[in-house]
């Protein structure tokens, strides 16, 4: 009984810490009564989100819980933060699930999933890296390199490179199929 209480306290603290109102993205843990634990990233990915994501994972580790997937609904955000989260997802072998819109930096996290799932209504999009001053060739090169390492087909990487931010190239059925994304209800 005490172990369960400790797990509940740890998860509650992690969720509260991860839901700081000063941050743009909402990070949360979903622990259904039955079934696997999932992490949720919702909203714009901002400075510090990769650290908060890592803190959530540490809290789950302490509770001896392993997330089965990361559910994503984000327009993207800071590339460095997105890539740090993507690398953690990849290193830990976590599946990804696009539940709504997943574009820009969110796409990088989605692509890092060892298994990729998406709601039938999900919209997944790509474009070049962008700074406040415009497109970033260096950032786009980094994104393309990571995407290829994650197994993103060259066809999709080409769309990323060809679509200047803030425009978005929404992936079509052919792209989704080439990425081996499993459609969910």
From TrEMBL:
<dbReference type="InterPro" id="IPR029045">
    <property type="entry name" value="ClpP/crotonase-like_dom_sf"/>
</dbReference>
<feature type="signal peptide">
    <location>
        <begin position="1"/>
        <end position="24"/>
    </location>
</feature>
<keyword id="KW-0732">Signal</keyword>
<protein>
    <recommendedName>
        <fullName>Peptidase S14</fullName>
    </recommendedName>
</protein>
<dbReference type="Pfam" id="PF00574">
    <property type="entry name" value="CLP_protease"/>
</dbReference>
<dbReference type="InterPro" id="IPR023562">
    <property type="entry name" value="ClpP/TepA"/>
</dbReference>
